[in-house]
Amino acid sequence: MASKNKLKILFPTHIALLLVLPSLILYVFFNTWPMVFSIGVALTNANRYNVSPDPAKIKGYEEAIACASLLKEMPEYREKASVLFDRLKIYFFNLSHALYRLNELINQSIDISKIPRDVIDELSYSTSQLYGLPGEVKKVFNCTELNYTTKEEIIPVVLLDKLDSLLSISGTIKDRLQYAQLFPEEVSISELRNLTSKAIAILSEIESGFSKLAVGYDEYMSETIERFRREKERLELRFIGIENFAKLFNDARFYNALYKTLLFVATSVPLKVALGVSLAVFYSSNLILGRKAIRAFLLVPWAMPFLLSALSWRIMFNPAGGPVAKILGLNMSTNEWHAFLVYNLFEAWLAYPFIMTVTQGALRGVPKDVIEASYIDGASIFYRFRRIILPLVSKPLMVATILTTGASLQVFLIPIVLNGAGPTGAICIPFIGCTSGPLNEMLLILGYNKVTSGTEGGEYGYAAAIYLVIVLIILAYVAVWFKISRRSRG
Amino acid sequence: MSMNGASQTILKIIVTIIGVIIAASLAYPLGFIIAQSIIGRGNIILTSLGKLAEYGVSLDSYIRVISDRVFQTCLLNTLIVAVITTIIAIFIIIPAGYAFSRFDFLGKNTLLYYYLIVSQAGGGLGIIAVLALYIFFYRMTAYGLNLMQIYILPFVYASGMVPFQTWLVKSYFDQLPRSLDEAAFIDGANWFEIIFRVIFPASRAAFIIVLLFGFMGAWGEFFIAGIFNLQTLGWYLYVQLTGQAGLQDPSLYAAASILYATPIIILFIVSQKYIGEAYRLGLKG
Questions:
Q1: How far is B121 from chain A (nearest CA, A)?
Q2: What pTM value is reported for the model?
């Protein structure tokens, strides 16, 4: 009781909080909070487009929808549009008449300077009729004039662009023809021919575009409204409940990732534990001279930063000329199981120093002559190993094995760095279906790919659902680990 | 023992030779990458030692790396990030570890338990936290706040180090007798005095551990920087060597990676005894 009071007085709580709080704030903000945030994200359709949209853009779509509905419904505007379309029809007819006449003359290969004046006049007149048109079209379908602020165009932008280019081409033809009246030698007939046929082609496209618009006005407007609505929806973050989780449990890639991850645990854990223990046992032998130095040297995988090791392994196992790939006949980029084998080897190589160090520590408790005897008396090495060494190292080795199992369960960088978890191929799961993806995709890599990778990237809601499930798997692992360690302690 | 001295010696020599061969083959990846970096022709993969004799040995790749502008920029970025990470870790984690060891406050044990699970459960939770953080930062850009900047990295790194290193520092202070620092509190010292007059002087070994781990962690990290698309040396090298450039000029990137790795390897060797200590403390917890 007295000591408890003394503790309270000497080490008051408010100072403790002062000391702990900075680290806690840092940790909560950068680690705990994002996890909590992602529980929310998992219940939405979050993706690259709607997580951080431009509010002005959404507003723009809303206004455009309202504007298009008005244009569709109000008789006044429909009337205006139909008048415009009728006029367009006449203008287009005039221009096409002029162009066809010119085309005929050019095809007869008459002398450019002898092209009749009235052909040129007709062309320049019908072109000049069109000059104001893009502006007029925009004015009739102008949302700003109807008091809607939007950058979206109701009229197909392609059509307006084509109209602009038609105007510039027929303007050029007119200029060249006028120039040819003065200097016939400097204008080539083939240039004119190209320009004219180009103008005719564009004009017919525009004509059919506008006539479609005129005939199917209602239909076009409904389509436009629908298009804006879809665009707007793409930018809106929506609550979709457990849809992401439902999708996950119907995704062949998830089952493949689960299968590959568990398989990796099953293969890599025995491999690295066996390697680490045998190295520890072997190098504890008195028969090896300078074993202290060699043991220090064996820690190389530990000392090398991961990136350096990864580069080295990547080149060593490069299917195009890597020396080890050549010797072992492995091709990581085409054979799924070759790649899987290399992951196992790399993981075992990375992890053996840990297992070895733990085992060495435990072996220090074993009398030296016991180990030595087990070597010299060759006949019963295995027996002695099992009966004498293993029981002595089993407890610390158990802890180490559990920890390294966690590492295998959460394998992430190894497949990514070696070959991007590839090769890519068809993934088929019974009762679920087929899809395509990286064949060696582990659980964490699946979540990562959904967040970052190019084509499918940015499915944040789905990715959050995936890694919440992974967190549950990790927690299940932790629970098993606690249970085992409690039993071995008790 | 039935064996005589001579055969014992022969056996020793044979076993030693086997031992050296095994150790050498396990260190092969390091030897390979060094050989690849010094081969006289940069654009080929070293397939045998014969190639090394054929094309000769040169430090050309190293010279090209050092004179590369991008490499220099990334090196500077990484150095700044690693130093700031270390400073944050020291000023935030050591006081917390001290408090966990000496003080008694509400939620202390729960928090310690939580830290233990997070630090021992493996790297998966950290990766998930970073992906979640990325989405959160991305969301923040909707409000005009771009947090994906190079100066955010030290905070992200240091926060990731909190659970494990808090345990380390706590375990370290648990071993020190309380009487050393009790006296300081009797006078009613303030926070500043407690940190600089009591905690830091008493925590030399913890100081070194946090410093080494902080620096090595921040220097070696490349994936978080990559998710935020920030140009640290690690991320630059990763992008280069997993892309086309790495295959076209393996020696250049081998040399670059070795230069990048050198500080970590040196620190690892220097800190061998502290790292052993740290794992002992960590495992005990």
A1: 6
A2: 0.81
